[in-house]
Amino acid sequence: MTDAAQDNGQMLAADGKPLKSSLNRALRRQKLRALALIAPLLIFVLITFIAPIADMLFRSVENQIVSDTLPRTTEALADWDGDTGEIPSPEVFKALYTDMFIAQERKLHTRLGSRLNYELTGISSLFRKSGRRVEDMGEVYQDQFEDLNDFWKDSETWNALMGSDAWLAEQAAWDETSDSRQPQFELREEIEGLLPQTAATFEIFADFVQNDDEDNLANEDPWALVYSALYDDLIVEPDISGYAGPGSAELLEAMAAVRSFETVDYPAAFEEVDEDWHSIPVWQTIQTYSPDFTSGYFLNSVDMKKSPDGPVIRPEDEQIYIKLFIRTLFMSLVITGSCILLGYPVAWLLANLPARTANLLMILVLLPFWTSLLVRTSAWKVMLQQQGVVNDTLVWLGLVADDSRLALINNQTGTIIAMTHILLPFMILPLYSVMKTIPPSYLRAAKSLGATNWTAFWRVYFPQSVPGIGAGSILVFILAIGYYITPELVGGTTGTFISNRIAYHISSSLNWGLAAALGAILLALVLALYWAYDKIVGIDNVKLGG
Amino acid sequence: MSALTPVSRTPVSFYVPVVALAGAFAGLLVGTAQGSSLLGVIGGAILMAAAAYLTTQVVQAERPSRWALIVMGALAGLVIGGIAAALIGAFFGWFFGWFTFWLYEGRYRAYVAPYLTPGQVLWHHTFRMICGAILIFLITPILVVMPLSFNAEDFFTFTPEMLRFDPAGYSLKHYEDFFTNSDWQGALANSVKIAPMATLLSVSFGTLAAIGLSQPHVPFRRAIMAILISPMIVPLIISAAGMYFFYSRIGLQGTYIGVVLAHAALGIPFVIITVTATLVGFDNSLTRAAANMGAGPVTTFFRVQMPLILPGVISGGLFAFITSFDEVVVVLFVGSAGQKTLPWQMFTGLREQISPTILAVATILVILSIALLTVVELLRRRSERLRGMSPA
User: Fold this and answer.
1) Distance (Å, rounded) from C-alpha B373 to C-alpha B380?
2) Is the N or the C terminus of chain B less surrounded, counting Cβ atoms within 10 Å?
3) Of the candidates B217, B241, B326, which has its C-beta nearest A30's C-beta?
């Protein structure tokens, strides 16, 4: 730096640079070093943990399956209004035919069926049935074209008509038995202009054969759908006089013939497959769920559903989730309550005993804490059975008759007993660490000033132990509402939590969106509690194992 | 603890009725078990009151009286119901001998403050009894599982043979099943393959990050901490659901690597917490001194910093290990049949065909956790000692 800077009173470091900027640079380097040390783990956690959570949140609103599987139908259906009581126009049915045909070739229609079945029971079988029958609809045209000229029967001639010359040459040169890739299909440019629908459909067909099935396109006859598209193209009589490529004569012949072809009435054809295709609710459901993102899963998780007129509450007998959430919260509260009740005296005893005895008794608290969750759950499952140790002891003592053994398992009682036991150490440890800091002389002072035992405890000791109760309760409550294993094993049907429902939707009913929405609600609940915990205790004060 | 209050003998009118009351209660238990509660209550009360009076006022010798009570209890038990009952009887005899003299000699006041009223003394002992009951509640499941795992039958309760201490009632067959059954051995092998890998990942990343986090100037410290701790806070079922969705998208679902990554993520908060806690007491002038004497950052880390924080790192690693070794929800979703771990096998065992082999496995796991608990406790002490050595 210049002398002028020095004159300003700036201090210089040994290398002649101003001290301030030197210090700043050192600080920046220190920050960077710290970040560089943290970065690997941060990236690791972001990828292995945060990304999955984000993915789950995304799935709870994602709904691309409808518009992906039925792109034409949803587009055609956009202007339809179900309140008029009229079924959609024939164009919609025609779009449905095209979409359905492609979907059933790709075996996607059943997945969409099960997706929409969550919203309206019966759609799943409707889609399955239609998938089987949709092929027949197009065969009307296929048969007529094939009767007209053998040209339309053969995959070779179709390829010659539709494919570009360059592709045809490559395809001819390609050796099927070799490892090299099949040359990717290319459209003949003139055809694309003349027969747009046929070209588009044939491209989908070619792509499916080459990439999904990995078959030789030269040996595959086109789908019936291609013939329907050809009919649609030819019936409007495009100007094909300028076309002189392969099949120009057959095209002219076909164009003259199509006018006398037997046609397909798509609405009627679909009605024949299943009359549900003429029911308004089915179409309303498809329309309601055509956007790419939906609040439907979240509405489902609070016992509501989407309808054309906005969200409505489900009928009484279909309401389960609100009840389940309330049960989860209620049972978690009961468990937290019993943990306070059982944990408080023990923590008090541990905090007030001489260190040696306290450490010895602490082992009794820490041993269950360290024991595998599965071990403790299996112990309770074994003990609480009808023929288990608890019932046997009660019967032996004569407190319970042999023929009226208590039902302690597969119900709420079982879940509450087992989870109270499992979570009790999480209550005792924070309580203990708080109580350890309360000087015992306070109690003695209160008593010497004339307070009774109870007053001294309630007015002097208890208020000081409240932070411990708060920390322990939130910890136990957070752990309890997300519990899965124990309720699953000892809860039966009445003692299960919302997490069991989430697991059910992931692995059994495969309604992933709903599972994700339920998970998102639970997550929000837990994060709110976590935030409260942070305010009360502070994350940095989380301690493990005493 | 030394005695707080000088003790003095109590009058007959106090301890005989109290012992009689306890005798009535014990008699109630024995009586109902034998079919007549009323007889049990009266018999127990009279018997115990008589015994208390005789031992204290007539025999007046503590040691022989208590031994005599134990022997008589054992004999009575033997007559009523075999060896197991004899043990219970001996216990009753020991208890009443102790209880009688505890009251008679006034020992119950020895360790409480002298100014307490009788009511307060009673409450003091009642409170201890309640705490004892809660501690028993905490430990019972573990204690019950252990003997049951030696059951010779496929039952989940004590068979009459076991209660008679008949050797025929006990066997090691469930352990044998565990060590020979391919399902269990496969599950054990998977657990042993997954947990150390996951631990290694979370310990190496976690220790580095904890060192970074404990530097004096870390931007966004709280936010970073919140992200790193989050796997511990988010309910397992949500982590499992998210990982299932995401890992199947990127092709990791059902693979060994997927399970290891998931378990490593779950173990990280434990490593972060324990290692940062150790670093709180770390004296940074040590690293500066090392640098001053010409050591590079790597040498400083391995020769100076690492030995000092090693106990924290190891106990964090043990936490991470036990997290992975015990974990079942995430592996249930992220894993496939090829990654079936021990807890998973136990879970399916408990849900479907419940077999007593689970109890044998449970006993082995309890012993393992006792070993781990001991190691962690020793490490904690060592860490405190090490930190005490370094200049504050």
Assistant:
1) 11
2) C
3) B217
